[in-house]
Amino acid sequence: MIDMKSHNVDLDKIEQAVGMILEAVGEDVGREGLQDTPKRVAKMYAEVFAGLKEDPKEYFRTVFHENHEELVLVKDIPFYSMCEHHLVPFFGKAHIAYIPRDGVVTGLSKLARAVETVAKRPQLQERITSTIADSMMETLNPHGVYVMVEAEHMCMTMRGIKKPGSKTVTAVSRGILETDDIKRSEVITYINMD
Ligand SMILES: Nc1nc2c(ncn2[C@@H]2O[C@H](COP(=O)(O)OP(=O)(O)OP(=O)(O)O)[C@@H](O)[C@H]2O)c(=O)[nH]1
Ligand SMILES: [Zn+2]
C-alpha cells in the first residue's frame, strides 16, 4: 500500500493532464469506460514513480557484522521501470554482487529494495545500474561492487524501431571488481549459471 501523500505527488494535476491527453487524441472523455481513467492513471503514476523521493542508500544502513569478505551475489531480481524519454515501461532483471569489507554485510532483501526504489522513477537503464553500484560503494564501503541489468524496452518494441525480444544489457563495476579481471569474470560466470 502506497502513501500517496508521502512523496508529494499532485494527483489532481496528473488527472487533469490525462484528461487533456485523451481529449487531444480525439477520445470522448465522457464515455463510460473512460470516466475514471484519469483518476486511475494518476494513482498508477504515484505508484510507479514512488521511488523519486526515496534514497536507496537508506537501505544499506541495515548492516550485520559477519566475517565474510568473499562474494555475495543476488541475481535475477525482477524490476519494472519507465523510460524517461517516452514514459513507457522497460523491464527485466538486475544482478547485484559485492565483496564486503571489514565484515560489513547488508540484508539481502535490501539489494532488491534498492532496485525497486531506483526503478520507480523516470529512468535510463544506465542510470539504474550506476546508481545502485554507487549507493553501495558510498554506504557499505565494500572491496567492490558489480551490477548488471538486462531489460526489454517497450519504446523499442511497441513503437519506433519495433524490435521485440531485443535486450539491453548494462553493467557497472567498482573497486576490486573493476580492477581484478578474474574476480569480475567469476561474478559474470555465476550470473550466467542457471
Ligand atoms: N541510453 C538509453 N537510451 C534509451 C533508454 N530508453 C530509451 N532510450 C532511447 O532514447 C532515444 C530517444 O531518441 P529520440 O530520437 O530523442 O526519440 P525518438 O524519435 O522517439 O526515437 P526512436 O525511439 O528512435 O523513434 C531512443 O533511441 C530510445 O531507444 C535507456 O534506458 N538508455
Ligand atoms: Zn524510451
UniProtKB/TrEMBL annotation:
Per the record, the domain of life is: Bacteria
Q: Which SUPFAM superfamilies match?
A: Tetrahydrobiopterin biosynthesis enzymes-like
Name of the featured protein? GTP cyclohydrolase 1
According to the entry, every stretch annotated as the GTP cyclohydrolase I domain falls at 14-191
Q: Which EC numbers characterise this protein's activity in its record?
A: 3.5.4.16
Q: What are the protein's UniProt keywords?
A: GTP-binding, Hydrolase, Metal-binding, Nucleotide-binding, One-carbon metabolism, Zinc
Lineage of source species: Bacteria, Bacillati, Bacillota, Bacilli, Bacillales
For this protein, the record's InterPro entries field holds: GTP-CH-I_C/QueF, GTP-CH-I_N, GTP_CycHdrlase_I, GTP_CycHdrlase_I_CS, GTP_CycHdrlase_I_dom
Q: How does it assemble?
A: Homopolymer.
